[in-house]
Design goal:
The protein has 2 domains: 77 residues, Arc Repressor Mutant, subunit A; 127 residues, no CATH class. Helix content is 56%, strand content 0%. It is built from 9 helices and no strands. Helix 1 packs across helix 2 and helix 2 crosses helix 3. The structure holds a DNA duplex (21 and 21 nucleotides).
Length: 213
Amino acid sequence: MRERSIKREVKPMKAMNNVSSKKELVNKGAWTSEEDQKLAEVIEIHGAKRWKIIAAKAGLNRCGKSCRLRWLNYLRPNIKRGNISDQEEDLILRLHKLLGNRWSLIAGRLPGRTDNEIKNYWNSHLSKKMKQKEKQSGVATREGCNINGQQNRVEEKANVERMSEEENTSKGVDDSEINFDVDEFFDFSNESPLNFEWVTKFLEMDQGWSDIL
DNA sequence: AAGGTAGGCAACCGCCACACG
DNA sequence: TCGTGTGGCGGTTGCCTACCT
């Protein structure tokens, strides 16, 4: 839809902000600024761990999960919101081609962006772009396989594993010694942001497999 | 001006993996 | 080894808002 220039104010939702039931007394729905403030204060003191304890200490009738989500997606420092640049968009597209719907891994590659934001951006913008592209080209791309999420995940994992095998084969590494961890492989914490070299490299490899298969 | 509609996004849900006793 | 608790992740839901008729 049209670009929203100003982020909407968080208002308590009619139904959702109410206590869900008399039994549980758990608050749900949109967060208020007071809740945000309390949560931030508690996290400053205790750190962003043990969410159940944080939820209790903050005195919010929220579950730990809800607190964690709020912190990670909204309150955490250095979060970038909106205005995803062309470069970032390109990177998301490339990473999605490589990894599938592994939003947390993709987000890890985009400093200041959250998995939720990227997932939303993909669902509302990029997936449509991809479909349009597909229509125009008339060629079934791997994106077309995303209808079945489970199948797609298996395929993406297989791709990553193939990458690993190919690398090891070229180095003459014995298969029995392979202990490949996808998450470790995609730990970019030590790399500079928006570095496309590695993506290009592996997309080239990806093309190589496509040719073989 | 008012109602309808589609898109955007925050937040919840359910499942899974891991840690710990 | 098993059971339980907790955190993390992806999918989905539903409210809000801008635009359309």
